[in-house]
Amino acid sequence: MKHKKYKGKSTEAIHAGETFSILPTAVQDHQAGKTGIPLLPPIYQNSTFGFQTAAECASAFIDEESGYVYTRWGNPTQKVLEEKLAALEAGESALATASGMGAISIALLTALADGGHVVAMETLYSATFNLLNEELPRMGVETTFVDATDPNKIESAIRPDTKVIYLESPTNPLLKLVDIAACAEIAKSHNITSIIDNTFATPCSQQPITLGIDVVLHSMTKYLSGNGAVIAGAIVGKKEFIVQAQKEALRNFGAVISPFNAWLTLLGVPTLPLRFGRHCENALRIAAFLETHPAVEWVRYPGLPSHPQHNLAKRQMNGFGGMITMELKEGHAAGEKLVNALQICTLAVSLGDVRTLVCHPASTTHSHIPIEVRQQTGITDGLVRFSIGLEDTEDIIADLEQALGTLLS
Ligand code: LCS
Predict the structure, then answer these.
(1) Is the C-beta atom of 105 inside 6 A of ligand 1?
(2) What is the residue with the minimal CA distance to atom 11 of ligand 1?
(3) How do residues 118-129 score in pLDDT, each as one tens digit?
(4) pTM of the complete model
(5) Å from CA of 220 to ligand 1 middle
(6) Cα separation of 22 and 374, whole Å?
(7) Is any ligand 1 atom within 6 A of the Cβ of residue 100?
(8) Residue 47, number of CB atoms within 10 A of its CB
(9) Number of compact structural domains in the chain
């Protein structure tokens, strides 16, 4: 796939993927002089595609790049989105999926098609951890979890049967970073597939493929769509890997994106660079404010000099993102009190929304996990995670100030 080279991310987010030859009806109508070109791709809301002759149908089966047969195998609306994603992540090809977990599962099933062992970052999004720790072992795939903030620990865990190095940076919810270029180098030197979940950073902040990573994953539910309207995911990588993922695991396990969700995501992507810039600006100011508050024990934000990997963040990231994690001095009770007192910040899971979302894992998402296990993985009682939205900074700070104030009285 060839991409036009644009000078900036915003132009790319708006124009990449608009190769109208992949919109069959639109281009035919345009060529026949019947219509102008639709500037927003149509939603091809159909499960199957009809043919006039057996020969036409047979050729679509053989050359799937030029023809569509069945939406589980591909759909023109999905294809426009995929072209845009490949351009944004500087990858050869992309595959949109039904969810972020769909993307992670399909990428792992593809890279582990012949079985093997995984070396993974020890703190990952919880469902990813469950997939590696509970689901894949049932299929004979073992994972060694290591503190990948030290790339040497990855190298030491590699076995002769290791097929995948699996990373997230920044991690959910502790915002730890990995040195992406160093990890990619280790993977290359051992001929192992490197995979990274780039959901928190987005391609506006870092493009792991340009740092040597093989496969980039996204939950497009988050910043890429940005509208809080869809569950969607993406895999970006070499064409050979993407074609294999599409023809084998995706097709057979069925985690396909719906044409409508692909279209809704396409509405969000063009404003990603603009939104991401604002998420970053807001988050940096809010993180600095939180750090000075007497009810707060510590704040983790890659853009703050207090982040243990701030130098790596400055080297590797172009914008530190919209996620902030902090620890309250008074623990569990303070966490509950804070989320109850907030008025603009909304208590909700997920992230990357236009609204500021707040979550207190100990009383919600992680309440069923024994306290010793939570503490081992850093999910402490006073931990609060913010996905800073696009509201005016002053309003978010005022809301935080009044809610944190209730913890001091
Ligand atoms: N990767 C990361 C880093 C995530 O944060 C999530 C979801 C996923 C993958 C899975 O994406 P999905 O299948 O939901 O599209 N993170 C969530 C969170 O922190 N709260 O709710 C969902």
Answers:
(1) no
(2) 100
(3) 999 998 999 999
(4) 0.94
(5) 9
(6) 48
(7) yes
(8) 10
(9) 1
Residue nearest to atom 15 of ligand 1 (CA): 100
261 C-alpha to ligand 1 centroid (Å): 16
Q: Is residue 278 part of a domain?
A: yes
Dihedral (C-alpha) 313, 314, 317, 320: value to the nearest 10 degrees? 70
Q: Is residue 219 part of a domain?
A: no
Q: Is the pLDDT of residue 20 over 80?
A: no
Q: What are phi and psi of 341, to 5 degrees?
A: -85, -20
Summarised one tens digit per residue, pLDDT across range 243-284 is: 999 999 999 999 999 999 999 999 999 999 999 999 999 999
Q: What is the CATH number of the domain that holds 353?
A: 3.90.1150.10
Domain-embedded: residue 336: yes
Domain annotation covers residue 177: no
Peptide bond into 173 cis (omega under 30): yes
Is 333 a pocket residue for ligand 1 (Cβ < 6 Å)? Answer: no
- Cβ(176)–Cβ(123) under 8 Å? yes
Q: Does 308 sit behind a cis peptide bond, omega within 30 degrees of 0 on the bond before it?
A: no
What values do phi and psi take at 253, rounded to 5?
-90, -20
| Closest alpha carbon to 200 in 306, 316, 327, 112 | 316
Q: Which two tokens stand for residue 202?
A: 């987005």
Contacts of 255 (CB under 8 A, 6+ apart): 97, 98, 99, 102, 103, 105, 106, 233
Are the C-beta atoms of 279 and 322 separated by less than 8 Å?
yes
Cα–ligand 1 centroid distance for 352 (angstroms)? 10
Tell me, using a 6 A CB cutoff, whether residue 59 lines ligand 1: no
Q: Kindly state if the Cβ of 99 falls inside 6 Å of ligand 1.
A: yes
In angstroms, rounded to a whole number, what is the distance separating the alpha carbons of residues 228 and 389? 11
Q: Does the C-beta of 101 come closer than 6 Å to ligand 1?
A: yes
Q: Which atom of ligand 1 is nearest to the CA of 168?
A: 3
Pick the residue whose CA is nearest to atom 17 on ligand 1: 350
| pLDDT band of 2, cuts 50, 70, 90 | very low
221 touches ligand 1 (CB under 6 Å): yes
What gap in Å lies between CA 150 and CA 301, rounded to an integer?
19
Cα(366)–Cα(139) distance, integer angstroms = 26
Question: Residue 298's domain spans which residues?
Answer: 273-405
Measured in angstroms, how far is the CA atom of residue 90 from the centroid of ligand 1?
23
Residues identified as active-site: 72, 125, 197, 222
